[in-house]
Design goal:
7 helices, 2 strands
Length: 142
């Protein structure tokens, strides 16, 4: 995460400089801390629209989704789905990059769908369905 110039990126509410801290809270926090951080990340990165910080965060979200010690893995998977389902028409290249970051890990979703945790399985199945049915203007071949 230290290689990303977060202070130069933006999310729904401005500078993305706080994104690494929130990702760390999701990774190592207890249930409450992790859930609160994930809620913030959802608002910042994917529930309203996608941003350049979203593009940078997607690989880290995938890492969190597959790390057994992360308490809120179902929520991380749901955030990845929210990212795939939201857009940013003024910035189609950002939208495309964010969506491709989610779409490119379709194989990982298959692995998560057979996870031991039923909540992870369910979230992964929902994400797989969203990936399989994804069609947006930014992702259509030109």
């Amino acid at each position: 995460m230290s290689r990303v110039r977060w202070h130069e990126l933006t999310h729904a509410y401005g500078s993305a400089q706080d994104v690494p801290g929130q990702l760390s809270r999701v990774a190592w926090g207890d249930a409450r801390t992790s859930t609160e951080a994930l809620s913030d990340l959802g608002l910042w990165l994917g529930e309203l629209a996608v941003f350049d910080a979203t593009v940078a965060a997607v690989p880290f979200l995938w890492d969190l989704a597959v790390t057994d010690s992360v308490i809120s893995r179902p929520g991380v998977i749901e955030l990845l789905q929210a990212i795939l389902e939201h857009d940013n028409p003024p910035q189609l290249e950002v939208q495309h990059a964010a969506h491709q970051g989610v779409l490119s890990a379709r194989g990982t979703v298959g692995v998560l769908a057979s996870d031991e945790d039923p909540a992870v399985q369910e979230a992964a199945r929902d994400l797989a369905a969203a990936i399989d049915s994804h069609a947006c203007e930014a992702c259509r071949p030109s």
